[in-house]
Design a protein that fits this description.
Structural class: mainly alpha
Distance between the termini: 29 Å
Number of helices: 12
Helix content: 55-70%
Number of domains: 1
Strand content: under 5%
Number of strands: 0
């Protein structure tokens, strides 16, 4: 249950959200340097969450940084169904996506949060960072469960270790409703809608 439902969130969820954010971010030197800290934090998380995040932490610790970067870009930047931007799954590259991004931006502003320069507000690690600080982030994740489910399915098909991190996020959310499952099945068959639009203004939100 969420704080909005009158129940306090378990304190470990903020830590879990931050860990998931870091292991799903581009593996730059600062992110990789946090690996030991993430690994230590996993001991304080429920097994159902820690056991899903641990393989990603181990993979990053055991793999050359250059190889990690190539793997990440090829997976998340060049594979349409492995997009880390949540609104892409339901709005694609259409004008509806611009509206959806504006809605995300409004949530960030209301929470007193800011998006890092160059990131869109629906970027999964950014939403997880918000969730670590404010229940608004969890609300966005719940509302975009379909995108998370489709992302997890695509990563599993590619046998990517990152599927475990997305599964950890899904495990922290309520089970999907029948309507969510049906919508995900439809989107899995057809893919996101297409219509090229400019989205750059959303990359430098405050």
């Amino acid at each position: 249950m969420s704080a909005a439902d009158g129940h306090a969130e378990p304190p470990w969820r903020a830590v879990a959200a931050r860990c998931a954010s870091l292991v799903l971010r581009y593996p730059d030197p600062d992110v990789l340097a946090a690996g030991p800290t993430i690994d230590a934090a996993l001991s304080g998380l429920p097994d159902a969450i820690a056991d899903r995040l641990r393989p990603v932490v181990a993979h990053r610790a055991a793999t050359d940084a250059a190889a990690l970067a190539v793997e990440y870009v090829e997976l998340f930047d060049f594979r349409r169904r492995c997009c880390l931007h949540l609104t892409y799954y339901t709005a694609g590259d259409t004008r509806r996506r611009g509206q959806a991004l504006a809605g995300f931006a409004d949530v960030y502003r209301a929470a007193g949060w800011r998006v890092v320069d160059g990131e869109l507000p629906d970027y999964l690690p950014a939403v997880l960072d918000l969730a670590a600080a404010d229940d608004a982030g969890w609300r966005l994740l719940r509302e975009h469960r379909i995108g998370l489910d489709l992302l997890a399915q695509a990563l599993a098909e590619h046998r990517s270790v990152y599927r475990h991190a997305v599964d950890a996020v899904r495990a922290m959310l309520p089970a999907p409703r029948p309507a969510d499952l049906a919508a995900a099945a439809r989107l899995a068959r057809t893919g996101p809608p297409h219509e090229a639009v400019g989205l750059e203004p959303y990359g430098s939100l405050r």
